[in-house]
C-alpha cells in the first residue's frame, strides 16, 4: 500500500467524533496509536470523553485510549461497539485512561 496515502487516511481520522453503534457520543479523536513495525492502527486517543460513559475515571485526564478493534465503521464519524456503554471501569476491557 502507498505509504503517503496511508498516512493521509490515518491523519484524516483526527478530529472526527466517535459514537457507539447505539448513537451515544463517546469522544473526539485527538491522536492515533500506531504499531510502527506493522503500520497498523491499534488504538484511538479520544479527547473530551463522555463523562456519563466513563464517570469519574476521566475527570482531570487529557482523554482515553480505546482499542481499534472496537471500531465498526469509519465515515464522517467513527462508530465503535456499544461495549463502551457497558464499561464499569476502563481496566475491564483493556482500556487505558491517559493522565
TrEMBL record:
InterPro entries: PRC-brl_dom, PRC_barrel-like_sf. Pfam families: PRC. Residues 10-85 form the PRC-barrel domain. This is PRC-barrel domain protein.
Amino acid at each position: 500500500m502507498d505509504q503517503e496515502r496511508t498516512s493521509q487516511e490515518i491523519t484524516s481520522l483526527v478530529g472526527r467524533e466517535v459514537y457507539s453503534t447505539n448513537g451515544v457520543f463517546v469522544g473526539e479523536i485527538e491522536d492515533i496509536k500506531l504499531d510502527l513495525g506493522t503500520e497498523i492502527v491499534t488504538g484511538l486517543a479520544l479527547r473530551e470523553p463522555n463523562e456519563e460513559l466513563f464517570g469519574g475515571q476521566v475527570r482531570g485526564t487529557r482523554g482515553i485510549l480505546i482499542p481499534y478493534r472496537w471500531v465498526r465503521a469509519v465515515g464522517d464519524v467513527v462508530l465503535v461497539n456499544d461495549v463502551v456503554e457497558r464499561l464499569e471501569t476502563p481496566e475491564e476491557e483493556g482500556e487505558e485512561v491517559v493522565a
